[in-house]
Amino acid sequence: MVFWSLASMGHAIGSSFTSFLVARSALGFGEAGVFPASIKTIAEWFPKKERAFATGIFNAGTNIGAIITPLVVPWITIHWGWRSAFLLTGALGFVWLVFWLVLYRKPEEHPRLSEAELNYIRSDPSPRFARTKWLSLITYRQTWAFIAGKFMIDPIWWFYLFWVPDFLQRKHGVAFISIGVPILVIYLMADVGSVAGGWLSSAMIHHGKSVNLARKTAMLICAVSIVPIVFAYRVESMWGAVLLIGLAAAGHQGFSANLFTLTSDTFPAQAVGSVVGMGGMAGAIGGMLIAKIVGYTLQWTGSYMVPFLMAGFAYLLALATIQILSPKLEPVRIP
After folding, report:
1. For the ranges 10-14, 57-61, 295-299, the one whose mean pLDDT is highest
2. The pTM is what?
């Protein structure tokens, strides 16, 4: 987080394309550690039956930030300049760091945690193992199940983030200055999906279902809810298209909350961060590919049909791949 904050603030001193490129690369490098650390923290603090719900809640926070940023940053830029926008948003990381250092401890080290609470957290403990090289994790099918899932679904989220505004402008003539409300609706729906998708599998486990059945049932429901987006390019109503995209964004976040949780279901807490990091890299590679695919598709066809078809069926394909690679979500046995 410190590195991320410094990289963000570094944009403020940039005065050339090269300096901005360096700052942006450092920012991407720094922010890559957020999700691995977050998922590992959840693995340490929550039993399996609560993890997907907890992941859904924190995952929804990314959308809240995306909603607030377009409202706050322009105001800062207008009143204090664009450099101040980078400095102030980057400084927020240090504020968060203070609270983290003061408040965070591992459950067994936390002075305010009761014995009953600790027992609840440890109700289904993961076996501990000696420190191992992260490359050795590649030998497990469970690792590849997560990597494959991230490679297939992360590009679709990047597609929503970067191309939906262009789609709304091309197809529905939405002016750039008016695009904020439709995007706000999409992100709000995504927040609901993130929390609901995580809650669903957690609730199923509470009611006696196996972790394998609960996670994959929730992911299947989310994947099916995304399929209607294949018709988004044909819908004539702007709000009809926005609701279809919002439903798909909600399905993505619910699917993602459960996909992240698979790592803590199958790996000890000490390995979760490494596995999530590998999946994050695969997702980033997929994000680079989708940018090229959408760009070339629009250049050749002028239509969003192919990207929306990809978005509609990527999650069913990802779930099928996960099922093949990890049919029972069996915990790995690391020596």
Report:
1. 295-299
2. 0.81
